[in-house]
Amino acid sequence: MKTRILMMFTLGLIALLAFSCSSKKQENETAGNNETAGKIEAHSGSLPSGQLMFTAQKGWIEEKPSSSMRKAQYSLPGVNGQENATMAVFFFPGTGGSVEQNLQRWYGQFKEPDGSPVTDHVERKQVNVNNLPVTEVYVTGTFLQSQSTMMMGGPVEEKTGYAMWAAIAETAEGPWFFKATGPQETIDHWRKSLNDFAKTFHVQNS
Q1: Pairing of strands 202-204, 156-171
Q2: Which entry of 13, 33, 93, 156 is 20 to 30 Å from 71 by CA?
Q3: Number of CB atoms found within 10 A of residue 155's CB
């Protein structure tokens, strides 16, 4: 009889401890989710608001944008007989997708000669420029250049030995996208200039 009572007491104690641990775990998970959401909201609310300004670098050639979606466009002269590179600037107020969505889309415009994932070769850094969060990436490989400026998923021209330097600056009105593509030798020649270009990003309050 005593043995049965002791066994029932032990089982009850184990059940009580299990319930306590489960409740504590759920509480911690909820607290963790709230903390993450708070960080995201704080980041969004702290983004600078106003018109993003930037300064084209010496040697760049300003061009008329080839698409109505482009806010600005520049030609970066080629070197050693290589083609020029193109720097395009995009901004879609309130739309345009997240930083990660756009980076993944851009990575999808390249493929590696050895068949390895493009993401394995991406150079990426996060910097703060005049209180603006800026993500910069650099990738090389075969560029799958779309033959249409109006639609995605159409025919492409494969251009080997290409590179992309890109930056995304986040503002309260939405992200600004800066994307330079061209022969790797040309992009590499202008890479310091591109990095210096990103340092000119700043918001002008209206």
Answers
A1: unpaired
A2: 156
A3: 9
